[in-house]
Design brief:
This protein has 293 residues and is of the alpha/beta class. 41% of the residues lie in helices and 23% in strands. Helix 1 (5-17) packs across helix 2, helix 1 (5-17) packs across helix 3 (31-45) and helix 1 packs across helix 4 (61-85).
């Protein structure tokens, strides 16, 4: 089927903004030209792609299917354009996907180093959970991701470089001081309120698996999207928080780490990229900061 690329480009911008007027602004063409392009594409595909009303625009199920294919293609084109601009390696850009925790407690020193070496380079960091970061990679929205591992969402399509080993720990405040001198079993932990990350995280999957392996059903007191919030809630005594050891507050008199009767398995931080898609020189240089375990 012979369809002009520009029609797909217009479709992408309308689908991304859900607005014909906003798409026209971003494409620097008239709104009538946007509307005509969508009509032409719908005619060629013999499908209705948008549901139009006076107040808003919505994708049809067929439009959503098309967007899932067009979005990665558009991102690959943008990546190619960025790499061409990156040939001198005085500028260019890197696009990283990582969780808030990994960015704050691990990546910041490396971002600082890269910025000092290449002040003209553009750094874009997209914060999502480790699971959702894989979706960013699949859609071509980032050059690479830094994620917790194991990560069930990662497939054999990705090149994985293990860069740091870490341990998960349980922390509590002084209202749980009776637990300081005890080595707790997983069963005993269930007697206390557990604070943990939400179900969309690899950490949640990891902790639930630890309990299930012992035929125990974990029902947390609270599930949040931020380790910082978990630490804050643990600090005021709302429960026992499960967090990575690299984000434990230093010299915090209000918090202590619980001892477990069984050692928890360690996990890793990894860099993952699509080995079938070339990355920019800037991104490649940034990844060289990390030695493989």
């Amino acid at each position: 089927m012979d369809i002009n690329y520009e029609l797909y480009k217009v479709f992408y911008y309308v689908a991304a903004t859900l607005s014909f007027s906003e798409a026209s602004k971003q494409l620097f063409i008239s709104q009538s030209a946007v509307s005509q392009s969508i009509k032409t594409l719908e005619k060629k595909l013999d499908q209705t792609l948008f549901i139009r009303s006076t107040k808003k625009v919505r994708l049809t199920p067929e439009g959503e299917i098309l967007l899932r294919h067009i979005e990665p293609a558009m991102n690959l084109i943008k990546r190619g354009e960025a790499q061409l601009k990156d040939t001198s390696f005085t500028g260019g850009q890197i696009r990283i996907g990582a969780s808030d925790t990994i960015c704050r407690y691990f990546l910041v020193p490396y971002l600082k180093k890269f910025h000092q070496e290449f002040p003209n380079a553009h750094i874009k960091v997209t914060n999502q959970t480790s699971t959702h970061c894989v979706e960013l990679l699949e859609n071509g929205q980032v050059d690479f991701i830094v994620t917790n591992y194991p990560n069930a969402a990662l497939s054999n399509l990705y090149s994985i470089k293990k860069i740091r080993r870490f341990q998960d720990v349980f922390i509590a405040n002084q209202s749980f001081h009776d637990l300081r001198s005890r080595k707790l079993t997983f069963g005993e932990l269930l007697q206390f309120p557990i604070l943990m990350l939400d179900k969309n995280s690899t950490t949640s999957e990891f902790l639930h698996n630890l309990f299930q392996q012992r035929q125990l059903d974990l029902v947390p007191e609270a599930e949040l999207s931020s380790n910082d919030l978990l630490i804050d809630l643990a600090r005021i005594g709302l429960g026992i928080a499960f967090i990575p050891d690299y984000c434990i507050p230093q010299q915090d008199p209000d918090l202590f780490t619980l001892e477990m009767a069984e050692a928890l398995p360690s996990r890793e931080l990894v860099i993952a990229c699509n080995e079938h898609v070339p990355i920019s020189k800037a991104a490649s240089h940034f990844m060289e900061y990390f030695k493989e375990l």
